[in-house]
UniProtKB/TrEMBL annotation:
PANTHER family (UniProt xref): E3 UBIQUITIN-PROTEIN LIGASE PELLINO HOMOLOG 3, E3 UBIQUITIN-PROTEIN LIGASE PELLINO-RELATED
Membrane-spanning segments: none
Record-given protein name: Pellino E3 ubiquitin protein ligase family member 3
Start and end residues of each Pellino RING domain: 302-445
GO MF annotation list: ubiquitin protein ligase activity
Residue span, Pellino FHA domain: 38-297
A Pfam family matched in the record: Pellino_FHA
UniProt keyword annotations, A-Z: Phosphoprotein
Organism in which the protein naturally occurs: Podarcis muralis (Wall lizard)
GO biological process: protein K63-linked ubiquitination; regulation of Toll signaling pathway
Keyword Zinc: no
């Protein structure tokens, strides 16, 4: 047995992390941090699952929900690397893993393992995300079915989301930086990377690795704003390093290290868990998004204009934001290839298209004919502009800047494919642009 667990055996980088916690956890703010003096809890940000439009099909319950706000914990629960052990005896490896201390185990062979023990970090809070419903998971995420607005059972053997997918570490002091790491600690406070997992020794003598299906992150250029553009999808390692994508999602060979990028989450960062994609919104960024009250006011403004069906001359009205899934009699419908808005009718089927397309009576263009739904998840909006555009072919309606932004974002699908999708329902976008400007008959034009 070779045991290199003494403090002297740890690299200087690990030693730098082993700072003593201050006796008092009280924060003395600078003049610009007056918010800390209030009784309002510090909010690090929110994680929003794409494809659910504000709530899960059966409602948000406990840790299984469509969005989760991360607040400063009453007591810090973060951890940081402490001591490295090189083990040649499986029994010793098992004993170290069962100490009740957080650790990451890298199995190099049947006779050689490296265990990195973690110690308490009084300056950070840790939040864990995954498919498991065990208590150490703060945010239970299940596979999203594109366009179905439903989730596959979290216990399904076909799920591609890891039970302990990733963890977010937030600094408890301003500016409350949040970082993403692949893999989460299980009930034994361990992370195990077996012989088949991609892992390696870093130049500074430490260990790192990737999870089976990987955790991908994309930071938009320019933040989450109308001027931002898509960034490049990267893979995050267990230790938070950034790598280029593997040839396929579960390939053994890692991508190239990207030293110029970091695992720090910014407003608008996307996190893909191979089955579900999460959007990170900072507390500052959420202040710039519309509220549900503002979205409701926009809905009432449209309905107050009394738009009409150009053929049936019936008055159209968007249903309330709480009404989802059930089409109402006055609900507007749209021909997604041209944007003309009508009331529901039963004519115009194109037999040569198998009855799946309709011919618009206004311009004679054929295409899908779908009901319009207002986007209810305010965190996905870039601004509070009027809902003038709809995603194709699903019919979710929001502002022009919002559709233009999401239509250019390629979201991971499967092992190596990427598709732009509606953020409200997950349906893959179609057409040249992926969205259409709505053409109402009446004052709205």
């Amino acid at each position: 047995m070779v045991l290199e667990g003494s403090p002297e055996a740890v690299s200087s980088q690990s030693l730098d992390l082993r700072r003593a916690c201050p006796k008092s956890s009280r924060i003395y703010p600078s003049p610009g941090d007056s918010i800390l003096l209030t009784k309002e809890p510090v909010k690090y940000g929110e994680l929003i699952v794409l494809g659910y439009n504000g709530s899960l099909p059966n409602g948000d319950k406990g840790r299984r929900r469509s969005r989760l706000a991360l607040f400063k914990r009453p007591k810090p629960n973060g951890v940081k690397p402490d001591v490295i052990h090189h083990i040649s005896t499986p029994l010793v490896s098992k004993a170290l893993s069962n100490k009740g201390q957080h650790s990451i185990s890298y199995t190099l062979s049947r006779s050689h393992s490296v265990i990195v023990e973690y110690t308490h970090d009084c300056e950070t809070d840790m939040f864990q995300i995954g498919r498991s419903t065990e208590s150490m998971i703060d945010f239970v995420v299940t596979d999203t079915t594109p366009g179905a607005n439903s989730a596959i059972d979290g216990q399904s053997a076909q799920s591609t989301i890891s039970r302990f997918a990733c963890r977010v570490i937030c600094e408890r002091n301003p500016p409350y930086t949040a970082r993403i790491y692949a893999a989460g600690f299980d009930a034994s406070r361990n992370i195990f990377l077996g012989e088949r997992a991609a892992k390696w020794r870093t130049p500074d003598g430490l260990m790192d690795g990737l999870t089976t299906n990987g955790v991908l992150v994309m930071h938009p250029n320019g933040g989450f704003s109308e001027d931002s553009t898509p960034g490049v999808w990267r893979e995050i390692s267990v230790c938070g390093n950034v790598y280029a994508l593997r040839d396929s999602r579960s390939a053994q060979q890692r991508g190239k290290l990207v030293e110029s990028e970091s695992n720090v989450l910014q407003d608008g960062s996307l996190i893909d868990l191979c089955g579900a994609t999460l959007l990170w919104r900072t507390s500052e960024g959420l202040l710039r998004t519309p509220t549900l009250q503002q979205l409701e006011a926009l809905r009432q403004e449209i309905n107050a204009a009394r738009p009409q069906c150009p053929v049936g001359f019936s008055t159209l009205a968007f249903p309330s934001l709480a009404q989802r899934g059930v089409v109402e009699k006055k609900q507007p419908w749209v021909y997604v290839n041209c944007g003309h808005v009508h009331g529901f009718h039963n004519w115009g089927f194109r037999k040569e298209k198998g009855g799946l397309e309709r011919e618009c009576p206004m311009c004679r263009r054929s295409g899908p004919y779908v009901p319009l739904w207002l986007g209810c998840e305010a965190g996905l909006y870039l601004d509070a502009g009027r809902p003038t555009h709809a995603f194709c072919p699903c019919g979710h309606v929001c502002s022009a800047k919002t559709v233009q932004y999401w239509a250019q974002i390629p979201l991971p699908h499967g092992t190596h494919a990427f598709h732009a999708a509606c953020p409200f329902c997950g349906t893959w976008l179609t057409g040249q642009q992926g969205f259409v400007r709505l053409i109402f008959q009446g004052p709205l034009d």
